[in-house]
Amino acid sequence: MSSTSSPQRVLSGIQPTSASFHVGNYLGAVKQWVALQDEHEVFYFLADLHSLTLEPPAPADLTERSRRAAAQLLAAGVDPDRSAVFLQSHVPGHTQLSWIFECLTGYGEAGRMTQFKDKAARGGAERVSVGLYTYPILQAADILIYQAHYVPVGEDQRQHIELTRNLAQRFNGRYGETFVVPDAYITKEAAKILDLQDPSAKMSKSRPDAGTLNLMDEPSVLTKKIKRAVTDTDTSIRFDPAAKPGVSNLLAILSAVTSTPIATLEAELDGQGYGTLKNAVADAVVAFAEPFSKRVNELMDDPAEIDRVLAIGAERARAVADATVAEVYDKVGFVPPLGGR
User: Is 192 a catalytic site residue?
Assistant: First the structure.
């Protein structure tokens, strides 16, 4: 089992299910990933296996999106010299360990996962795959195979971390101490970015495009979406998520992109209209997204270099993952193949 000595290990992943990260992805997750490189041993993977759980993309699209997602992590500041950046499918241990945990997970336990129920409700019961049902168990394997101490997640992922912790403790209790029991790493500073058209819901790639600010969008598209964002019939610009969710969401975006406290923004915008607020948000988002998009496109001009970075990251990841799988298989009682695993 991994030592708990410093630096402690952090693991997180993101699905390459679209051509662009959105503002919520960056402000809610990737920005924190970049900061975590300074003091932790980090493993960041592109969850291409998970991307098949709903409507599987066309093969060419998945290939393109996987490379583009890697390019976006690099453009955002993830440093491959300090972070293992890799594709989930390049490390066979993820699925090998997932089967062990599937056999330790109760049917009802898996069915109680709220994200599964939400996604199943949106997609329709007749289109739900077994992969969607079991993906929280694969997610647990993703984490535990690297003996991660911390997993950066949003509040909506707490249930998944609890399942992961339960499975680690269950295995340890049955077979002996093997897995680090990880903790959720939830930074209070991480912005929760909501849908521009429905500020009761988190900004998401699975929601209608009109409410999502994709970082690879043209400036004119970003500006148009922001200017059409839902607000309210009041005229005051103040942060009140319960009474003014749309306005509060715009303030949260502006605060996060400009690193300006919300209280300061409220004072600066006091007495001004929603048009002024939306213009300020549009200018700030475009100022960030334009150079980001340019850098991503430069990286995409050299796919061989992206593949090289992913290969190096996968090699680092496999060194840890293979050792975990070997220990788990030995404790479960599998006969080792001649010549080793």
Answer: no
Q: Does residue 2 have a pLDDT over 50? A: no
Active site residue 205: yes
- Which one of the listed residues 119, 192, 227, 331 is annotated catalytic? 119
DSSP state letter for 30: I
Looking at 27-31, 77-81, 83-87, 283-287, which range is the least confident one? 27-31
Q: What angle do CA 21, 285, 305 make, to 5 degrees?
A: 40
Which residue in the list 192, 202, 227, 331 is annotated as catalytic?
A: 202
DSSP labels for 288-330?
A: HHHHHHHHHHHHHT-HHHHHHHHHHHHHHHHHHHHHHHHHHHH
Catalytic residue among 117, 188, 192, 205: 205
- Asked whether 27 and 193 are in contact (CB, 8 A), the reply is yes
pLDDT computed for residue 340 by the predictor? 66
Asked about 119 being catalytic, the answer comes back as yes
Task: Report whether 177 contacts 230 (CB < 8 A).
Answer: no
Give the pLDDT confidence of 252-307 residue by residue, as tens digits.
Answer: 999 999 999 999 999 999 999 999 999 999 999 999 999 999 999 999 999 999 99
10 Å Cβ neighbour count for 335? 7
| Residue 91, amino acid | V
